[in-house]
Amino acid sequence: MKRDSKTRYGSISKTFHWLMAGLIGWQLFKFGDRIAEGEHWVGETLVPWHVSIGTLLLVLIVLRLAWVITQRHQRPAHDPAIARLVKAGHGLLFAGMLLMPITGMMVMLGGGHGVSAFGMELFAKSEEIAWAAAIGNLHSPLAWLLTALIIGHIGMALIHHFIRKDDTLKRML
Questions:
Q1: In this protein, which residues make up the domain named Cytochrome b561 bacterial/Ni-hydrogenase (predicted)?
Q2: 123: which residues sit within 8 A by CB, 6+ positions away?
């Protein structure tokens, strides 16, 4: 089943979710740069892909948001007592996933570095851009906030599965 239903997420929603979860997990290895100034195997093998993966995630989040909008009337319902909290939590996750690559690009453009993804130049090197650098300064704090939201998201999925014993997690598996 490709489309979502009132009881389960479809294969397209699941593919977006798990592909992006894996790529965002990869992006979180960037925190490894804070250890020994990135001079270790994580910093040398995974982190160099950070800008390319971030660019890919920007494309995926835009496509995913478009998909969510088309499926909004067919998605599984949430417990009415917590439906607003669920929507707020998911809204914050989507906002974080959208803002991370945008602010990341602002870091690069603001510093005059340009942006290349997977070997293709998207924006050429230029002079520093003060307003872009100011927006880019939000990238690191947003990374910490998004990480906290992801931990909360995973925690709630596990609570639903192991404590509430409902089908919330199974809908996305």
A1: 8-173
A2: 105, 108, 109, 114, 115
User: What residue has token string 């192991």?
Assistant: 162
Q: What is the pLDDT of residues 131-148, one digit of tens each?
A: 999 999 999 999 999 999
- Do residues 60 and 20 lie in contact, with contact meaning Cβ atoms separated by under 8 Å? yes
- CA 51 to CA 55: how far, in whole Å? 6
Closest CA to 64 of 120, 20, 96: 20
Q: Per residue in 41-80, pLDDT tens?
A: 777 888 889 999 999 999 999 999 999 999 988 888 777 8
Domain 11-172 has CATH 1.20.950.20: yes
pTM of the model: 0.91
DSSP letters of 50-80? Answer: HHHHHHHHHHHHHHHHHHHHHHTTTSPP--T
State how far the alpha carbon of 95 is from the alpha carbons of 71, 99, 141, 142, 146, in Å: 18, 6, 14, 10, 9
* pLDDT at site 38: 66
Q: Whole-angstrom Cα distance, residue 17 to residue 33?
A: 26
Three-state secondary-structure class, residue 117: strand
The DSSP output letter for 43 is H
Give CA–CA dist 130/18, Å, rounded.
36
